[in-house]
TrEMBL record:
Pfam family, one: SOUL
Designated name of the protein: SOUL heme-binding protein
Domain of life: Archaea
Gene3D superfamilies tied to this protein: Regulatory factor, effector binding domain
Length: 211
């Protein structure tokens, strides 16, 4: 094997290992919303979630929505006067909120091209203790305890794949006689630099309580 070819292979292998290592690290460091797994039906999980608090915004596209919410969890909230951002996010004064998985997004009702995105806040925050956003286009939302049906998949989550998984989710619920409540949403658990084969995505919809 030629030295140049060998160097390229060794360097590529090191980069790939570093990429995978970052995926493992970032996934393990992210706090996830707790839930109880009740049962599994054709790969669809039925879960019980506790009350949760989200920071939500509606924007023309996902990049803008993400930036607004990331600014909020990075310290753009009441009581924070100055912000020093590093990797990971850090603030000099005020309150900075750790990023929690998953990030939820769905098509907004008001505009077919708009996106409503929400960041779940860590479990220690309640509606009373969650910092108030300073941006008028970010709001706090409290969701009551609920049952949720979830179809999990990996790799990237383009619209066609999300639609296909949503159809599978709806078909499974219909076959099992379980009524969905509201519209489905997309949950994404990883940062943009996580390798696609390590990503965790979920299509989720609230379902009626069992009788």
């Amino acid at each position: 094997m030629r030295p140049l070819t060998k160097a390229i292979l060794v360097g590529g292998g090191a980069l790939f290992a570093g990429w995978v290592g970052w995926g493992i690290y970032s996934t393990s460091e992210a706090e996830s919303v707790p839930y109880e797994r009740l049962r599994t039906l054709n790969g669809v999980e039925i879960r019980r979630y506790p009350r949760t608090v989200l920071a939500e915004t509606t924007a023309p596209e996902q990049r803008t929505a993400f930036r607004r919410l990331f600014a909020y969890i990075s310290g753009d909230n009441r009581g924070n006067e100055s912000i020093s951002m590093t990797a990971p996010v850090q603030t000099r004064t005020g309150e900075s909120i750790s990023m929690t998985a998953p990030v939820r997004s769905e098509t907004a009702d008001t505009d077919s091209d708009a996106v409503r995105m929400g960041f779940y806040l860590p479990a220690e925050y309640s509606p009373e203790t969650a910092p108030e956003p300073t941006a008028s286009d970010v709001s706090l939302v409290t969701e009551p305890p609920k049952r949720v049906a979830v179809d999990r998949f990996s790799w990237y989550a383009p619209a066609w794949r999300v639609e296909r998984r949503t159809q599978k989710l709806r078909a499974t619920l219909e076959r099992e006689g379980i009524d969905p409540v509201g519209d489905p949403s997309l949950l994404r658990y990883n940062d943009p630099w996580t390798p696609p084969f390590m990503r965790r995505n979920e299509v989720a919809v609230a379902v009626a309580e069992a009788e």
